[in-house]
Amino acid sequence: MENVTVSDGSTLRIDMSGTLTVNDHSKFRSMIQSDECTGKNLIILNMEKIEFIDSAGMGMLLFASKAAQSATWSLRIQNPTGQVQKMIELAKLDQMLDVSYT
Q: Per the database record, which ranges form the STAS domain (predicted)?
């Protein structure tokens, strides 16, 4: 997983690319708990360029959602496509999380 962050006042967009798998757990957790998220109202995980997600990656999305609930920010999953979109829909994460397909 690679990521680029773009901050716009109270919103932080994280453009992710590559894969989101068990191998990315530590990096993902550090990213979600980073100082960049502090003081933001909305964190957007732009997943348009994530090509593959496994069950551990989906668990990381749930972790991010719980982190948002215990902090002061909201989480939005944006632009999942292909296999990632299918996995999110099969697991019904799109019913539990704020997922945007725009």
A: 14-102
3-class DSSP state of 57: helix
Q: Determine how many CB atoms are found less than 10 A away from the CB of residue 9.
A: 9
Q: What is the pLDDT along the chain (102 residues), one digit of tens a residue?
A: 787 787 788 999 999 999 999 999 999 999 988 888 888 899 999 999 999 999 999 999 999 999 998 888 899 999 999 999 999 999 999 999 999 987
b vs e for 30-45, b when ≥16 Cβ sit within 10 Å of the residue's Cβ?
ebbeeeebeebebbbb
For the entire predicted model, the pTM comes to 0.91
* Domains of the chain with bracketed CATH: 2-100 (3.30.750.24)
- Summarize the chain as % helix, strand, coil (round to 5): 40, 35, 25
